Give the backbone structure.
Amino acid sequence: MADDLSELTAALRDFADRRDWHQFHTPKNLAMALAGEVGELVAELQWLTPEECTSLSDGARDRLALEAADVFIYLVRLADITGIDLLDAATRKMATNEVRFPH
């Protein structure tokens, strides 16, 4: 099991390598797959009330977790293929947001 982002990235790269999926893992294809998975994540919450969204059953939480994992996996894979350091990008984005949205 991967304990940090670099280990997860390496594990995902290895998984794709062993299946010869690099031909399919283009930035465009990964972005499209990511969008599809976001849709599946949204579908898990689509018709719930705000109260239902904050008190999910174990089954609903597990389904949501698996969809969130799909989103995360595709995002990590996209970042790996394009050479983006997600932690650095997120840190820079948060710094930008601090300026844009002061408290």
User: Anything to note?
Assistant: The CA atoms of residues 27 and 42 lie 22 Å apart. The chain has one domain: 5-12+26-98. The radius of gyration is 16 Å.
